[in-house]
Amino acid sequence: MASILMAAAEGLPFVKTGGLADVIGSLPAALAEMGHEVKVVLPLYKKIAEKNFQDLTYCASYTVNINYREVPVTIYSQTVGKVAYFFVQHQGYFERDALYGYLDDGERFAYFQKAVIEMLNQLNYWPNIIHCHDWQTGMIPCMVKETHSSDSRYANIKFVYTIHNLLFQGNFGPEMTDSCLGLPYYLLDNGNIRFDGGVSFMKSGILYADKITTVSPTYSQEILTPQYGEHMEAVLNMRRYDLWGIVNGIDTAVWNPNTDPALPYHYNKITMSKGKAQDKAALQKELGLEVNPHVMLVGVVSRLTYQKGFYLMLEKFQELANAPIQLAILGTGEDAIQNAFRDMENQHKGKVCFYRGYNEDLAHRIYAGSDLFLMPSLFEPCGLSQLCSLRYGTLPLVRETGGLKDTVTPYNEFDKTGNGFSFSNYNADEMMNTLNNAINVYYNRPEDWKILQMNAMNKDVSWQNSAEVYNRLYDTLM
Ligand code: ADP
Ligand code: GLC
Q1: Which atom of ligand 2 is nearest to the CA of 248?
Q2: How far is the CA of 431 from the centre of ligand 1 (A)?
Q3: Which protein residue has the closest C-alpha to ligand 2 atom 11?
Q4: 220-268 confidence digits (pLDDT tens)
Q5: N or C: which terminal CB in the chain sees fewer CB atoms within 10 Å?
Q6: H helical segments located in 197-260
Q7: What is the CATH code for 3-249+464-477?
């Protein structure tokens, strides 16, 4: 069994902007359940300082060098179940309204990574493996290997780097090589950390980690191509024999329609028809939709960005408005998408509801109360929303890409297999045809619909299988 430190920029139950937080909130516990010693390190954001500070324990204070100054670091910790969480505290860098999106993000996360590396020394804690997630922690393998190789305590550590979304790469100007990262300029010149003339945290993670993973087998293949590679495909191809695709799971204790505190009515596989119908009626009422058990309710819970495929919906604005469905949309993001959804709601009150914002509880009620869940992504490394829908007996309609392809099996009308609906090409007609097929099954083959719902609820969306694959991966490094 290994001692593993996970380094990430967000994680439940403390802070979340997307699926990364769900993974950091659930994978460590699943690995700890298997016998590994797992710890997690996160920045101490304002939200955590405000909500959890009284529960945190002081661990250490020291400094790291950023911009040729010694900058203070304070480490706190809290244990949740079997997993210890460390927090890197610096008010100026992290106690801000948002997590990311600042001009000094490069400096902020260079600081975080340096603080994590020095934390091991300060706490005299030497994990076998540091498992880094996404660009915000991509420099850790490089910084350890390039600047601590003569110290055997550091040199013995192995590194796993997980790509949750290749789109976000952490590419910054070349000047930060020395000033923030404390690395020699020849690593820029020889190309090790250089990308597009600057420093790339993502590229460095891919190049220096001992193993690279991404969050589904299909995405691990897609990113080797120019279509999905976000200009990193050449680097990824160099490391393709160390690249694993391991599909995400969800925390099935949190996502459980039989106990979920956000739901007005609870249900399991046996009581699904009644419970879901009650949750649907309650949701229709809550969102100002016509309360009608017979009309098909289509849900969306998402960041509203081009990644998620909503431009296909905008292309079919009229057809969607005329289709015999209701739409419940929860999300925030790009103005063009928000404005179109707002127009759709204004023109079709009672049939379309667009709730602009982030609302955890409402998300649970949409997963439970909808009949169909729409996720026509342009690309999707894994996707957790379709897993939540499956768990709640709501059939996902997805594009066959990344983790969506690996987790949703399309309806087969002959042998009644499948747990949802899917289409192949990023094309609005294909999406609309697939939606029309789903509408047809819903209204004209209700027995088949029930079978698909049962298949959905029977699908294992827990971490069990994938935690075993991570286990094998760690084994190869030990
Ligand atoms: P991504 O990480 O690319 O945004 P995922 O499907 O992996 O996509 O994870 C998204 C997570 O965030 C899911 O748990 C989903 O329920 C949640 N989520 C997304 N948008 C919202 C929102 N507006 N309100 C509440 N939860 C949301
Ligand atoms: C990213 C991806 C999403 C994935 C999540 C967790 O946000 O966009 O597909 O599910 O990370 O791995």
Answers
A1: 12
A2: 21
A3: 164
A4: 999 999 999 999 999 999 999 999 999 999 999 999 999 999 999 999 9
A5: C
A6: 201-208, 217-222, 233-238
A7: 3.40.50.2000
Q: pLDDT tens digits, residue range 29-45?
A: 999 999 999 999 999 99
Going by the DSSP 8-state scheme, the letter that residue 8 receives in this structure is -
Provide the CA 252 distance to its chain's centre, in angstroms. Answer: 16
Query: Probe ligand 1: pick from 10, 22, 407, max atoms within 8 Å of CB?
Result: 22
DSSP 412: B
Q: How far apart are CA 234 and CA 230, in angstroms?
A: 10
Q: Which residues contact 460 (CB under 8 A, 6 or more apart)?
A: none
DSSP string, 9-72: S-BTTTB-SSHHHHHHHHHHHHHHHTT-EEEEEEE--HHHHHHHGGG-EEEEEEEEEETTEEEE
- Same fold? 3-249+464-477, 272-458: yes
Residue 164 CA: which ligand is closest?
2
Among 164, 169, 214, 470, which residue has the most ligand 2 atoms within 8 Å of its CB, making it the best to mutate?
Answer: 164
What was the pLDDT predicted at 114? 98
| Cβ–ligand 1 contact at 303 (below 6 Å) | yes
Low-confidence ranges of the chain (pLDDT < 50): none
Beta carbon of 62 within 6 Å of any ligand 1 atom:
no
Q: Which residues contact 437 (CB under 8 A, 6 or more apart)?
A: 411, 421
Q: Could you tell me the fold of the domain covering 272-458? A: Rossmann fold (3.40.50)
**Cα of 415 to ligand 1 centre, how many Å?**
33
pLDDT for position 261: 98
CA of residue 288 to ligand 2 center, whole Å: 31
Q: Please give the model's pTM, rounded to 2 decimal places.
A: 0.97
Indicate which atom in ligand 1 lies nearest the CA of residue 22.
14
Q: Could you tell me the residue ranges of all domains in the chain? A: 3-249+464-477, 272-458
Count of other CB atoms within 10 angstroms of residue 272: 19
